[in-house]
Structures are given as C-alpha cells and as structure tokens.
C-alpha cells in the first residue's frame, strides 16, 4: 500500500494495518447507515413515529462515526474507501431484508 506523506511517526507497516482496519469499519458504517435509512423510510405500524425518528437518529450517529473513520485513515496517509460500491463489496454486515416494514421485524433483523 502506498501511503501519502504525513507527520505521523507511526511505522509505515503499523499505519498500513490501521488504515486497512479503518476502511473495513468504514465499509460497515456506510452499510449500517444505508440499512438504518432503509428501516427509517419503510417502517410502518403503531410505533411508526417513534421508530422513524429513532432510525434517523441512529443513522446520523453512524454517519458521524463513518466520517471519523474516513478522516483518520487519511490522517495516517491512506485513502478513505467510502463509495457505496466499495461498502457493498467489503461490508461484513448481514444483508438487511428489504421486505421488512414493522418495528418488531426491524428490531429482530439486527443480528
């Protein structure tokens, strides 16, 4: 992995390992963000408004963490791999079932 110059004094091999881990978690965070938005957009039922708002709050928090992960990878001299295509390919999360609409299904889908 070719790194960009940085003032960070960690050894290159250490930075490479950390950047790889950060990008793996970035893929998970992007995937989790989109899965949470999927739940937010499609939830139905008696607890709709509470769950709709909760899913949106979770998505916002996950987006903030994704930003921190990406920025740290770049600070270490790496490249943040944050496109939807990379996230879809690299995420370690289970696929969120697109047919889920109830709050109970949404809660049980998170493994």
From TrEMBL:
Instruction: Cite the entry's keywords alphabetically.
Output: DNA-binding
Q: Which residues form the signal peptide?
A: none
This protein's source sits in the domain of life called Bacteria
Would I find DNA-binding among this entry's keywords?
A: yes
The record lists the lineage as: Bacteria, Bacillati, Armatimonadota, Chthonomonadia, Chthonomonadales
Instruction: Identify this protein by name.
Output: DNA-binding ferritin-like protein (Oxidative damage protectant)
The record's section on InterPro entries has: DPS_DNA-bd (IPR002177), DPS_DNA-bd_CS (IPR023188), Ferritin-like (IPR012347), Ferritin-like_SF (IPR009078), Ferritin_DPS_dom (IPR008331)
NCBIfam families, alphabetized: PRK09448.1
GO MF entries: DNA binding; ferric iron binding; oxidoreductase activity, acting on metal ions
């Amino acid at each position: 992995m070719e790194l960009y110059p940085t003032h960070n004094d960690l050894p290159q091999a250490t930075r490479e390992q950390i950047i790889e881990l950060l990008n793996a978690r970035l893929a998970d965070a992007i995937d989790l963000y989109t899965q949470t938005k999927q739940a937010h957009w499609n939830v139905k039922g008696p607890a709709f408004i509470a769950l709709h708002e909760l899913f949106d709050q979770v998505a916002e928090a996950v987006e903030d963490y994704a930003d921190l992960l990406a920025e740290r990878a770049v600070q270490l001299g790496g490249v943040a791999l944050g496109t939807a295509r990379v996230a879809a390919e690299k995420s370690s999360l289970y696929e969120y079932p697109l047919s889920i609409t109830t709050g109970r299904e949404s809660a049980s889908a998170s493994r």
